[in-house]
Design a protein that fits this description.
Blueprint lengths: L4 E3 L6 E2 L2 E5 L4 E6 L4 H13 L6 E6 L4 E7 L4 E7 L3 E4 L4 E4 H10 L1
Parallel strand pairs: 4-5
Antiparallel strand pairs: 1-4, 2-3, 5-6, 6-7, 8-9
Length: about 110
């Protein structure tokens, strides 16, 4: 699978059968498009949750200023939703995303 953004902490580990595939992502971002939203939210997200190194999945809505943050806990995944005026803390990579900044370009066009 090819996410929109992949963050790897440390050296990348490649799949020996397919050198273009990284097997140790830490964080993945998907922009939900009309044609792929159902697949990204369901089958693809479930696949991502099975990747041992992955701790965070960010889903960015294409229709409204809404961001979903899936985080791996000690036993399960949790979901937090963010909207306009809020910030998304990506603690694993020590980064904060402003929801307003993510959508600023789209609003200005």
């Amino acid at each position: 699978m090819y996410p929109d953004v992949t963050v790897i902490c440390g050296p990348s580990v490649r799949d020996p059968a397919s050198p273009t595939h990284v097997t140790n992502p830490k964080l993945i971002v998907e922009v939900l498009r009309p044609s792929t939203e159902d697949y990204d939210r369901n089958e693809k997200l479930e696949h991502y949750k099975r990747v041992p190194s992955l701790s965070t999945v960010v889903l960015i809505d294409h229709r409204s200023e809404r961001v979903e943050l899936w985080s791996r806990g000690t036993t399960d995944w949790s979901l937090a939703r963010f909207g306009s005026g809020e910030e998304v803390l990506l603690s694993d990579i020590r980064c904060t995303l402003s929801v307003d900044d993510l959508y600023r370009v789209a609003r200005e066009e």
